[in-house]
Amino acid sequence: MIIVRFLAMLILALTLIACSPVLPRQRGNLALPQMALTTDALEFGLRQHTAFSKEAASGGYGGGGGGCGCN
Amino acid sequence: MTEHKNYARSTPVNCLTFAALSLLGLTSTALAGRVEETFNTDFQYGHYSESSERMAVDIFDLATSAPLGKAMTGSVSLVRDTISGASPVYNVRAKGDVTQVLSGASRNASRSDCGKSICDQRDALSGGLSYFFESSSLSMGGGFSQERDYTSRFINSTFSIDSAKKLTTLNIGASLAFDEIAPTEQFGGYIRNRDCGELCSKTAQQYLVGVVQVIDKNSLLQNNLTFSYNTGYLSDPYKKVAVFDGDIFTNLINDNRPREKFQWAWLSQYVRHFGDLNHAALHVDYRFSTDDWGINSHTTELSWHQPIAAGWLLTPRVRYYSQDQADFYRAVASSNSTATVVSSDYRLAGFGAVSGGLKLSKTLNTLKHLREAKFQVGAEFYEHSASYQLGGNRLSDFADFSYYLFTASVNVKF
C-alpha cells in the first residue's frame, strides 16, 4: 500500500514539477503562437515523415498518418 | 496529514492549459476545448535533396480547416511527393572495406521515365473532424496514400480531456494503418524480391497516452508514451544482402525482416516563454524509443523562437539523434551463418545524426479581407554518420550521407 502511494506520488511529481496556480487572466503568454507545442503543423508533418523514412525510431509525438514505401 | 497538506499546495487543479496538439495525422491547429473560429488554409512546398545525388523529393502540401457549426472543426489535407534518384540496394566488401551498391549502379540498369533509377509519385488525401465538448474534445480522421507500388489506408482518433481548472490535459489516441505493397518487377537494374508475391500487406497500430501540464504562466510540459505494433510484410522488396565467404562474394539474398515489431517511445517536451526577450520561446524535446528488433534510440531537439520587430519571427533549431543497430542487421552476411532473418538496410545500422535549421516567418494582420497571413521559409541541413552514434562507431561509416531540406509556406486565416 505504501509502495502504491509512493509510486502514485512519484508519477504525479514528474508531471507537476513545482506547479503554481495560473489564473485565467494570466494565460496570455501560454497562448502565444510560439508557445504552441506544434508551432507549424505542415512543417512538423514533413520533418516527422522525413525522420521516419531515414531513421528507425518513430512515435512519441503521435503522427499515425499512414505508411509509405519510403526508400 | 502534513504530507497531505504539502501535496495540496501544488495540486494540478490550479493549473490551466490550452496547449494545441495536432496528433496522429490531423493538421488542424484547433486548441483542446475550444472550437477554431477561423477558416485556415495552408500551402507548403518542400525540397529534399540527399548527398551524392541519391534521393531528391519535391513535396506539395495543401491543408484547410473550417469551423462546422458551433462545436465542430473539419479539416482536409492533400499531399503530393515527387521522388527521383537512387537508393542503396546492398553492400559489398573488398579487402576489408565495405561499400554501398546503389540502384542504377549496374551497367544494365534501365533508367526510369524521370532519368534516374527510381521515379515515383506519392499522393495522399486525409480528412478529420474534431468535436468539442465542455472540457474535452474528440477527433477522428482518416485517409489514404498511393504510390506506384504502395497503398496505405489509415484511420486515427484522439480524445483529450481537461482537468477541472484546465491546467492539465490528458490525451489518448489510437491510429491504424493498412498498407499494401505490389512491388514493381524491376528497379534500377535488379529484379525485386519474390517473397512478397504479387501483393503483400502490413498493418501498423499505434497507441498514445499523454499529459500536457501547465507548470506556471510561462511554461508547460508534455509527456507522451506511445506503443506501436507492426505486423505483416515488414521487409523491403527492393533491398538485398550480399553473402561473402571471406572476401569472396557467393550469393545475393533477400532483405528478410521479422514479421512483427513492437516499439515503445517516451517523449518529453518542455516549452518556456521569455517575456524579457521580446516574448521568445524555448522548446526542448527528448524522446527515447526501444523496439524488439534491438534498436534503442535517443532524440533531442532544441528550438528557439525569437520574435523580431513587427511580425517577424526567427527560429533556429538543432537536433541530435542516435540509434543502435538491429539484432539482424549485417553490412554483409557470412556464408557460415544460417540466419534467415537478415537485412543490410543502412537505416537499421548503428548511427547518429546531427541537424541544424533556421526558419524565418512574417505575419501580417492588417490585410483587408484576411484576418491573418503568414509567410515562412526554412532550411535544414542533416548529417548521418556512424561516428555520431552515442559511444561512436566506425562500423557503418560507409553509409554516411547528408541531406538538406528547404521549406516555404503560406498560411492564411479568414
Give structural notes.
- The complex is a heterodimer of chains A (71) and B (414).
- The model of chain A has no long low-confidence stretch (mean pLDDT 78).
- Chain A has helices at 2-15, 41-54.
- With 71 residues, chain A is mainly α.
- Chain A is 39% helix and 0% strand.
- Chain A contains two helices and no strands.
- With 414 residues, chain B is an all-beta fold.
- Chain B has one domain (35-82, 122-235, 257-327, 348-413): monomeric porin ompg (Porin, Beta Barrel).
- In chain B, strands 1-2-3-6-7-8-9-12-13-16-17-18-19-21-22-23 form a 16-stranded antiparallel barrel.
- In chain B, strand 12 and strand 13 (219-232) form a beta hairpin.
- Chain B is globular, with a radius of gyration of 24 Å.
- The model of chain B is unreliable at 1-33 (pLDDT under 50).
- At the A-B interface, helix 1 and helix 2 of A face strand 1, strand 2, strand 6, strand 7 and strand 8 of B.
Which key features would you list for this structure?
heterodimer, A: 71 residues, mainly alpha, 2 helices, flat, B: 414 residues, mainly beta, Porin, 3-stranded mixed beta sheet, globular
Sketch the topology of chain B as an H/E string, one letter per element.
HEEEEEEEEEEEEEEEEEEEEEEE
What's the CATH architecture name of chain B? Beta Barrel
Order of helices and strands of chain A: HH
Side-by-side strand order of the widest sheet of chain B: 1-2-3-6-7-8-9-12-13-16-17-18-19-21-22-23
Q: Identify the biggest protein-protein contact and residues per side.
A: A-B, 51 and 114 residues
Major beta sheet of chain A, specifics?
Answer: none
Overall mean confidence score, pLDDT of chain A: 78
Distance between the termini of chain B: 55 Å
